[in-house]
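Run S-adenosyl-L-methionine-dependent methyltransferase through structure prediction, thanks.
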Amino acid sequence: MSSNRAKLESLLSIINTAAQEAIAMYEKEGGDVPSFESTDSHPLDDALDTVALKSTIRTLEGACHQLCTTLAPPSHTAINMVQIYDYACIRVVLRENITNILLDYPKGIHVNELGKIINIEPRKLARMMRVLATRGCFVEVDTDTFANNRLSLILHSEHPVRHMVSLHVEACAKGASVFWETLKAPEQGPSYDPAHAPVMFANNRDGITGTFFDWMREDVSHMLQGQRTGTHSPFPGQQAPAYPFPEVSTVVDVGGGIGAFSLPLARTHKNVKITIHDLPEALVQARDIWANECPEAVKEDRVEFKELNFFTQVPVKGKDIYYLRNIIHDWPDDEALLILRNVREALGPNSRVLVHDYVLRGLSRKQAEVEASTLGADIAPEPLLPNYGVGNIRAYEQDMTMWILHNAKERTLQDSVQLAAAANLKLEKVWDLAEACVLEFKAA
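Sure, done. The structure for S-adenosyl-L-methionine-dependent methyltransferase is below.
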């Protein structure tokens, strides 16, 4: 057997093993595996701890894509990389609330009738819906007749993940349309100023200035305001389940919004007293949501809400854990360093800082092995790419999202270590959550 064929056989073995592992997880939790067409949710869909499943899917997706890319003609793969219009179709679905409409038609609705409801020409509508159904989002139950499925239900107006999807098909798509222009522009090209992010470059043409956060606060539509709520809403994967929270007494959720991290923490670890730090307008919403969704924590004085500008103020001092979920990646290095230095000033002798973000991995196996042995970072089995390839693509696409919206970035492990060192923090451990990571730091 040639070495190239042996690699492909190894990938096939990895795919089979990972798929069997995922099937076993679904059967263990719910008695059965999901169906492609079903609208029934599975217990794992809403589980707080899905790290094991995500880890398995990361391997499965990476191996499948690497196998297909190896065997397909390069021209085939190259065209498939760019000829993708899912985002444009999903934008229509969200704008017209098609998922909501289809709830009234569990057996499906013909595009002629759906077209009348949303005032879109039915033949064009059928073509758009078929693109998504081919991807597994919606089901074509009969010719030109479409129904919801488990995936399309994510796009319902009340599903929190839908708002994150909206952010990408609206703001990110707008910024991506001028991505090349910003790289070549004399002012924006070399700049890391958040006001020079690609989306704001596009907005400048419409007379909108400032940063993406300024735009969200002041100028965007109700739709985008909903997205901000959605990106801070609780949904699976927001916690670090493996972290020993039973041994912790106090947690500070820095920039915590409504408490996407700390709400599930309060429900599962009643030993922890939580402080949520954010700007005043965010805390108004947070208090209402906690009163409705976790009133026992409020009544038992297990949560407090304190205003904080993390650029200019130090968090409450001397607590056990300072948790920053999706905070540092929003900012270029200078601003990120300000945040970390203020957090560092709050630390007591035994305090820990947990930075929950995506971590970019290089494609050098030699470097990956060094990070695995010295820092505890995960590494994919050979012959998979050491960073899991497309199985870990979310991190790299998220890096592009941070660039387009904020002129910021996701960081490599080494980037994070160096940034933290400048704030007098030292990396203790990497907690791999499969999609993202939690980096645990202590005072240096």
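The first strand starts at residue 109 and ends at 110.
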